[in-house]
Write a structure and sequence with these properties.
The complex is a heterodimer.
Chain A lengths: L1 H9 L2 H30 L3 E2 L5 E2 L5 H6 L2 H33 L4 H12 L6 H12 L4 H8 L13 H25 L3 H9 L4 H12 L1 H16 L3 H5 L8 H10 L4 H25 L7
Antiparallel strand pairs in A: 1-2
Chain B lengths: L5 H26 L5 E6 L6 H11 L2 E6 L3 H9 L7 E2 L3 H9 L34 E13 L22 E3 L8 H6 L9 H14 L3 E4 L4 H7 L4 E5 H10 L3 E4 L6 E7 L8 H11 L2 H11 L14 H4 L8 H4 L3 E2 L7 H13 L1
Helix pairs in contact in B: 6-13
Classes of the chains: A mainly alpha, B alpha/beta.
């Protein structure tokens, strides 16, 4: 031990750093890169009969993605992911703004805890709760019927609307938190200056606040868009599995159809899309870093 | 008696799991008076506790009993090697896969003399022609679970799942193969057809049905039948019967066009260290009174014809558990179709993406 400590001291700054990050590096290598590598290799294999793969090289799995049936699923997933991101932004921005501009830190912290609170329960359980809220004898329909606002129960569950409600509910915190961080950093004197120089409310928001908080907007949008693209519990439970998103398609390839290579190639395509978005984020997301 | 479905079990399994480690872990050491052990891996709530106790007392063999929730989970366990289990209960198509993958031990039928108690029509089934690897345990069907308060028509045919009147009150099984069964049976085709033309016709029929379907689901339909959101469900007999016990308005029907038959089987996984004890247990389970007790507890249909006289007549006379011969003749086991599975996958994908 003493020897080791002596040797450790003799290492240079970079040697020490290398030693200290090695657990993290090994962790990522073992549990992230190697599995990813396996999926990459699988995506070029032929399917085994009962799951697994046959070790013959083929491009077939990537060609198969171009089948109109699958393209439609991918496009639909994009549409849902974009819709969810936009709705989360429209709801999340005013909420984040309200929270970050509160004077009392206690009140601010309470609001932030309320945003994070849902994460204490598993996402699947919370989605099940929506099943109960939205169904025919559920909370919403019971209340509306009792108040006499509607005569017949509304069809809420197993619709696209239910899927969107579930997704917005699930991913809103991912939008609010980065927006909050961004708006928090905003210097109020810049807003005052803008007003002093004669800008109206709209212009102050559009030309000063929005550009200055754009890193938060981009970060929040990516944090919402990426997991929505891969969502599969929500369309399955709240959508009644009547439509598929990429996540459902991938899950189905692995568990139901047992076409691991095709599932792998789909996973990789999603990964590439996500990677492309992250590159965009790194390039444009954090303008402050440039200086 | 309070009944719990497989699904309910799974929901609470994680909670019970913790308690189990603490609770059962300590008791089993005390009970274990003999050196012989038997590790049994079965579906949840698929046996009677008395049967296990009876065997332990008579043969002085300690049974360790675990549960799995799907055939696929079982297969994955065996694939991973040395599962440590001595007796498993895979369904028909899974037996075929396991034989194919060389995962099962051959059974010594000379030691399992009670095999003779089985109904002839459950011997030598297509997935294991000479019962070299498997012996049927319990069986059932897929059919229609329905709400008798809401559905006024008689449920005789799969056609009712295409009736406009029940728009948004219908659920279908969300499974690549099961989803197509009703359509194929309406058209008079085999559920194991590999004719692309016939599968295409079934697809057209299913596309026509889609606007009427409230949800495709293989697990939550039970809850929706209970809550009244869904009035007609394509479902499995075992699942629906668990609902019926608590909700008398729900009934189960086997459509006259015929349907899918499933059989769960007793098998010994390759590498079992207690093969003799496992065979003794299989033989024990095939005794008429023991087999009857299992049916009386679980309400699943029994292939053991010698046991019928001990089974509650309410069960044996129920046409939705034991369909009449003319319908039985139109029922089929789901076979693994190998390459032709792709035709069904294409159907499923297209149905879901439209």
């Amino acid at each position: 031990m003493k020897d080791f400590l002596l040797r450790y001291k003799s290492w240079g700054k970079e040697g020490k750093a290398g030693f200290l990050i090695s657990p993290a590096f090994l962790w990522l290598l073992l549990f992230f890169l190697i599995p990813l590598g396996i999926i990459f290799v699988y995506s070029f294999c032929e399917r085994g009969n009962y799951g697994g793969v046959n070790w013959n090289f083929t491009f077939e799995n990537y060609k198969q993605v171009l089948n109109p049936v699958y393209l439609k699923t991918i496009l639909y997933s994009f549409w849902i992911a974009i819709l969810n991101t936009v709705i989360c932004l429209l709801i999340g921005y005013p909420m984040a703004y309200y929270i970050s501009t509160r004077k009392s830190t206690v009140f601010k912290n309470i609001l932030l805890i309320l945003v994070i609170l849902p994460f204490w329960t598993d996402f699947l359980v919370r989605t099940y709760a929506w099943l109960v809220i939205l169904r025919e004898g559920g909370l919403i329909n019971t209340i509306l019927l009792q108040m006499g606002i509607i005569q017949e129960p509304l069809k809420l569950l197993f619709t696209d609307l239910a899927v969107i409600i579930g997704l917005v509910y699930g991913y809103l915190p991912f939008m609010i938190l980065p927006l909050y961080a961004s708006i928090e950093k905003l210097d109020p004197s810049l807003i005052e200056a803008a007003y002093d120089l004669g800008a109206n409310g709209f212009n102050v928001f559009w030309k000063v606040i929005l550009p200055l908080t754009s890193p938060g907007i981009i970060a929040g949008s990516i944090l919402v868009f990426v997991p929505t693209l891969g969502a599969y519990i929500t369309p399955d439970l709240l959508g009644g599995a009547k439509v598929m998103m990429i996540g459902n398609l991938i899950q189905q390839q692995f568990l139901k159809v047992k076409n691991w290579p095709f599932g792998s190639s789909l996973s990789f395509i999603v990964l590439i899309i996500v990677l492309a978005l992250l590159i965009i984020y790194i390039k444009f997301g954090e303008p402050e870093v440039e200086k | 008696m309070e009944k719990i479905t497989r699904r309910d079990f799974l929901k609470s399994a994680s909670l019970i799991g913790m308690a189990g480690i603490i609770g059962f872990g300590s008791t089993s050491c005390i009970e274990n008076g003999s050196s012989k052990n038997l590790f049994v891996y079965n579906w949840p709530f698929y046996i009677s506790d008395n049967v296990i106790k009876g065997f332990e007392q008579e043969f002085k063999i300690k049974i360790t009993y675990d549960n799995y929730s799907s055939n696929e989970e079982l297969l994955a366990k065996l694939h991973a090697g040395a599962s440590g289990y001595d007796l498993i209960f895979p369904s028909d198509y899974m037996v075929a896969i396991m034989i194919n993958e060389n995962l099962l031990e051959e059974l010594d039928l000379t030691k399992i003399t009670n095999f003779k108690n089985l109904d002839e029509k459950f011997k030598n089934l297509s997935f294991d022609p000479n019962n070299r690897y498997s012996i049927p345990y319990l069986w059932g069907t897929s059919g229609i679970g329905y709400n008798t308060e809401k559905v006024t028509d008689k449920v005789l045919s799969w056609q009712i799942l295409w009736d406009e009147k029940y728009k948004d009150r219908i659920s279908m099984l969300d499974d690549v193969r099961s989803i197509a069964n009703p359509a194929l049976k309406i058209l008079g085709y085999s559920i194991n057809t590999t004719d692309p033309g016939q599968i295409k016709e079934a697809k057209e029929l299913l596309l026509k049905q889609k606007p009427l379907v409230k949800a495709y689901t293989s697990d939550t339909y039970v809850d929706f039948l209970k809550s009244g959101d869904v009035w007609l469900s394509e479902g499995y007999s075992g699942d629906v019967f668990q609902v019926i016990k608590e909700h008398k308005v729900i009934k189960y029907a086997i459509p006259e066009e015929g349907t899918e038959l499933w059989v769960d089987n007793m098998c010994i996984p390759r590498g079992s260290k207690n093969k003799e004890s496992a065979e003794m247990f299989i033989d024990f389970l095939l005794r008429p009174e023991i087999s009857a007790e299992i049916s009386n507890t679980t309400w699943y249909a029994n292939p053991n014809s010698a046991s019928y006289k001990f089974i509650n007549p309410e069960i044996t006379k129920d046409k939705s558990i034991y369909p009449p011969q003319e319908i039985m003749d139109k029922c089929e086991l789901l076979k693994d179709l190998g390459e032709a599975n792709k035709l069904y996958e294409a159907l499923y994908n297209e149905l879901k993406s439209t």
